[in-house]
Amino acid sequence: MTAHYLERAGPDWLVAGARHVWRPYCQMKTARPPLPVVATRGSRLILDDGRELVDGLASWWTACHGYNHPHIAGAIRDQLERMPHVMFGGLAHEPAYRLARRLANLLPGDLNHAFFAESGSVSVEIAMKMALQFHINQGREGRTRFLSFRGGYHGDTLATMTVCDPEEGMHSLFSGVMPSQVIADLPVDAASEAALDAVLAQRGGEIAAILTEPLVQGAGGMLFHSPQVLRTLRRLADKHGVLLIFDEIFTGFGRTGTLFAMQAAGVEPDIVTLSKALTGGTLPLSVAVASTRVFEAFWSDDAGAALMHGPTYMGNALACAAANASLDLFEAGAWRADVARVSAALAAGLEPVRTAPGVVDVRVLGAIGVVEFDAPVAVGALCDAFAAEGAWIRPMGRTVYLTPAFTTPDADLAILTAAIREVVSAGGVEGNGGV
Ligand SMILES: *Cc1c(COP(=O)(O)O)cnc(C)c1O
């Protein structure tokens, strides 16, 4: 193997390990080397060479309370002393049972039945499996497909790829490999609503569930829609007898300004998936929470009606302890004022780039700030340019966006937005997406 393109500079572990690590979303031959991080603190990443970068992404939207929060760290440490993990088949433990009850209390309506897993994609797979079997268990045949939306993103595993935006770069290579789903436009106006109603009238009998990210389609381009869209989806799902799944893996836990995005619309799905910020960015954990109606379709004297699923690390006790500690912080309530503060700082700090060359939109919702360009941006070069300004910002597709920790201090928010203003006004942001 010729490894001349791999890392030659940086700490020994990076140079020695580089040829053995397969990086995510990355053409490794041409990509810039990854930044070596040796510690985290509050809203900052500390690099091997001593530099500190303000994290504009909260590590893929997970670290909502900032890094190394003492309350979460303490809860993990305590749980580690007692019991890091036991299998969930036939055994039970307090952190998971308490977490399930707390999630049921926090979620609106009767979203009361939590099935734990370790990653967002797997929780979406579980929600899809629940929806398929919901119909099978009630003797309805042929409901084998899902209806999802352009601009959507629900994960990278084989089944979740099929419900992502089909043209979106990450998965287009695999079209034809997996069963095709029904992909529609979100019902944002009368015409698209009528079109969706017509598709459901024609193909509703094949569809197990409608699947969407409420309020914000995240990885598909940070696209916002109004709460009215969710009310329309609820109405159409009920009209055509299909289930409604909200994927709140990105939007859940305060990111859009309400604890869950669905609360802005006053609409409840039949199943919701949660992950990213669930443990405050410390340990992998996800959950598919079903309504009582869904749960009861599995409640039977027939063993064959059970949900046959059970990840090895299901309900991991360390992760559940972290999630309980994160929920303590949410219950304390300071996040509401923090999200409003971050929101105002992003809106004010990003507004000046609206008139910069190539910029087609600047939008902010909750603690999400987005600058959208008319073409894909040069991701790698931009990461370097932002890092030179003291910020860790990794653009995506046609967008440069910020999703910082809610606790990011004003001075660090200023570093993030100044970096974007500086780099965007210098021009040359366009590229081929790239890595
Ligand atoms: C990140 C994400 C997923 C996938 O979660 P993983 O933990 O990466 O598998 C699914 N849906 C949405 C909305 C996401 O943002």
UniProtKB/TrEMBL annotation:
Name the UniProt record assigns to this protein? Adenosylmethionine-8-amino-7-oxononanoate aminotransferase
The UniProt similarity line reads: Belongs to the class-III pyridoxal-phosphate-dependent aminotransferase family. BioA subfamily.
Cofactor names from the entry are: pyridoxal 5'-phosphate
- N6-(pyridoxal phosphate)lysine modification sites are K276
Ordered alphabetically, the record's keywords are: Aminotransferase, Biotin biosynthesis, Cytoplasm, Pyridoxal phosphate, S-adenosyl-L-methionine, Transferase
Assembly and oligomerization: Homodimer.
| Catalyzed chemical reaction(s) | (8S)-8-amino-7-oxononanoate + S-adenosyl-L-methionine = S-adenosyl-4-methylsulfanyl-2-oxobutanoate + (7R,8S)-7,8-diammoniononanoate
Q: What pathway does the annotation place this protein in?
A: Cofactor biosynthesis; biotin biosynthesis; 7,8-diaminononanoate from 8-amino-7-oxononanoate (SAM route): step 1/1
Fetch the InterPro entries from UniProt: Aminotrans_3, Aminotrans_3_PPA_site, BioA, PyrdxlP-dep_Trfase, PyrdxlP-dep_Trfase_major, PyrdxlP-dep_Trfase_small
* Localization terms from the record: Cytoplasm
Q: Per the UniProt entry, what species is this protein from, by scientific name?
A: Caulobacter rhizosphaerae
Q: Where does pyridoxal 5'-phosphate bind?
A: G120, S121, D247, P311, T312
Query: What is any Pfam family matched here?
Result: Aminotran_3
Q: Name one GO molecular function term.
A: adenosylmethionine-8-amino-7-oxononanoate transaminase activity
Positions binding substrate in this chain are W60, Y153, K276, G310, R394
Function in brief: Catalyzes the transfer of the alpha-amino group from S-adenosyl-L-methionine (SAM) to 7-keto-8-aminopelargonic acid (KAPA) to form 7,8-diaminopelargonic acid (DAPA). It is the only aminotransferase known to utilize SAM as an amino donor.
